[in-house]
Specification:
Rossmann fold, globular, 7-stranded mixed sheet
Length: 349
Amino acid sequence: MQNSRRLNRNSVRSILIVKQHNQLGDMLCTLPLFASVRKSFPYSNIRLIASKDNFRVFNSTSEKYIDELLLYDKSNPVKFSKFLLNLKNRQYDISIVPSTFSFSKTSHLIGYLSGAKFKVGVKSADGKPNKYAGYLNVKADFEWESKRLHQVDRFLEIGKIIGCEFSDEDKNSVRLTFSKQEKSTAIDFYRINFGNGSRKVVGIHTGAGKIQNRWSGYNFAELIKYLFAKTNCFFFLTNSQYDSEATNELLSHLDKNFIEKNIVFDNGMEIRNLAAVLSHFDLYITNDTGTMHIAAYSGTKVLSLFGPTNGYEWAPLMKQNIYLQSPDNDINSINVKTVIDKSLFLINE
């Protein structure tokens, strides 16, 4: 650790967090870090740099951990020049580059170009040197793999370099914050599609960015049939433009009449409105993907399924969540009965 002793916490007025990558799950796992920075520097302006894909997740004046968003757009020279001008239009006391599984030259360069007095990040992780650590002047060596630390805790350890302490209770309380309009839109959607609330609602996400992270459509169909027989619940299917193959496989195993009467689709709903809708559900069952974190940080109970990726590292941490890990890295080795039993436990909890 270097130079953090010179940091006068009471003099900090402006903080920049650089997180311009496209991975939605990675961005949302950083949310507790944002909350810990807010808790430690309650009177500072916190500015987040985000990509076009992730910008919209926090693009609301209701979000309590971030004061400003700065869109990272390098699609053409004009937009990139505008980004650089916006970056340097103020003086930053601290810039933070929260990197846990890869080190980006761009992120570190942005943090350096911000001109922040204290440039915070990772010197090395699990013996792997950060070759861009020269852009930082407050940095530390971390050992994460041997401790099997969750990504959330890895990000929080970076914050601890500058004294941002955060308890387990703090972590469990972190949520997305919805505006009145977002809440109203969600309530209207729920009422129109699911009636008066007499039937439970279960969200389902069959897709994932990598095929090996997808539980089969047949398994999801068997799960849906059993949960319907036991609880008479509605189902809500979330799917992005990349998930159509997985969604269609699921639907091919269900009766058309059943689908029409009991399944509602998100139909490309705006991400913050989707999160607000998910906050009303009784359970969300999902593969390891970005919407898993959206559901969890909206306050929904989540049952997540993991094949080759590590659930201990990526599954939602909140107390009302459960993850199931494949015993052999094949996600379809997670049997339907186990998922049914855990689903019914969470629905009735």
